[in-house]
Amino acid sequence: MTMDELPSEVAALRRMPFFEGLTPEDLDRLSRIGERRRFEAGQSIVAKDAVGGGLFVIMSGSAELHAGGKRHTLGPGQFFGEMALLSGKPRSATVTAQEPVEAMVIEAMYFRPFLIKNPSVAVTILEGVVDRLREVQDRIDPARSPGATAPS
Question: What backbone phi and psi angles, to 5 degrees, belong to 43?
């Protein structure tokens, strides 16, 4: 099966670095548990302190994530919602579409069994969580950030 023969959902997921390690069969299963959603510019995708919802993977467009007084732009292939997905706790950020956004949304009740069968996806999510924790640590302790000189 060539890329042209893949269902559009699978082909879109295949182009994303987040899912590059998955087989076409894994991607097909993922596309069946995920739901493609569209958001208009200015529309709230998730709100801080909201409970529930899943992992969002941006397929097209861009969104602004606002957390801890900082803003980050997210684009195709980037994801958010992994903390709410894995912990079941309220969301720690607000995300708003900056332009029309298409996202694959995967709810926790479907995603956990998928992660168990696809540990490479779990590893990718963990790497993303660690990167975000490092960013937070660097904001809290600027001396830790790369290029900073240690106190002498």
Answer: -80, 140
Dump pLDDT digits (tens) for 12-57.
777 776 676 677 877 887 888 888 899 999 999 999 988 877 889 8
User: pLDDT by residue (tens digit) across 87-129?
Assistant: 778 888 899 999 999 998 988 888 888 888 878 777 877 777 7
Find out whether 4 and 103 touch, Cβ atoms under 8 Å.
no
Burial environment of residue 83 by CB neighbours within 10 A (0 to 12, 13 to 18, 19 or more): middle
pTM of the model: 0.73
